[in-house]
Each structure stands twice: as structure tokens, then as C-alpha cells.
Amino acid sequence: GPYGQVYEREYGRKGKSKFIFKHGEKAGVYAAARELDAVMENGMGGHNHRAQTIMRTTYNGPKAWWSMPALCNIEGPDCPPGYMHGDGLRNWQQGFGDVYFSRERSLFEVSTHIIHRGEMIANGRLYKDVRGKN
User: Alpha-carbon distance 58 to 1, whole Å?
Assistant: First the structure.
């Protein structure tokens, strides 16, 4: 969603559990851990443009945060500007995630899909960019 906007999705029996979707604001090697520490709820964001997952055990059950990769081009002339390491790499990954929620239980499933050179596998099936771009 828009930068700064937070969406909460209630799920499970009587909506007692929640999952947070937000752009995110933390960066760096431990971005997902810092996002989880800030909210201590299950959720995902994409500010970091890197695929990361962190989990913590709490007295209220396990909590996890997913940092999603970028869906934009991450190489070439169409790549948005961003921080680059001394070796010229951005250390971004290209991809996206999806979430499935249980209506009856406080359960959910998150999948992160990585796109590499215009190809990815999801649910055992190969998908290709037919335009030849990445």
C-alpha cells in the first residue's frame, strides 16, 4: 500500500487474530526482525526490497514478519535508483508474496515467490515472462 499506510486483516474464528500489511520503514540486513520487533504481530512489508523471514516465540504464540522482494525490474536501465554496495549490486530480489487465511482457525500460510531472470516456480509450476524481460 501507500507509504505509511497500514492494513490489518482479521482472521480465524470471530476474527481474534490479525495480520498486518504495510509498506514498511526498516532497512538493512535485519529489516524483517526490526519490523517484527516494532509491532510484535504477524505481518509483511516490502520497503527493504529483499526476501526475509523472521519468527519469534511469544506468550501469545509464534509471531512472524515477512519482508517481500520488489516486483519492479531490479537490473538494467528500467531499475529504480537505490542504494548500491561497493560491488555495484543493489542486493534486491525480484518477486512477490501471497497469504492464505483460515476462516475457522487462527492459521495462515505465507508464500514468497522469487523471480529470477523472468522465471519463477509457484505451486510446482514454471512461469515465464514471455516478453523476454526480467
Answer: 28
pLDDT category of residue 86 using cuts at 50, 70 and 90: low
**Is residue 75 within 8 Å of 93, Cβ to Cβ?**
no
The pLDDT value given to residue 5: 78
Q: Are 120 and 38 in contact (CB under 8 A)?
A: no
Domain layout of the chain by residue ranges: 6-128
Looking at residue 72, what DSSP letter applies? S
Residues with Cβ within 8 Å of 26's Cβ and at least 6 positions away in sequence, in order, are 32, 34, 35, 38, 47, 48
Residue 110 predicted with pLDDT over 90: yes
How crowded is the C-beta side of 31, counted as CA atoms within 13 Å? 21
Confidence of residue 84 (pLDDT cuts 50, 70, 90): low
Q: Are 52 and 32 in contact (CB under 8 A)?
A: yes
Report CA torsion sign: 79, 82, 87, 88.
positive
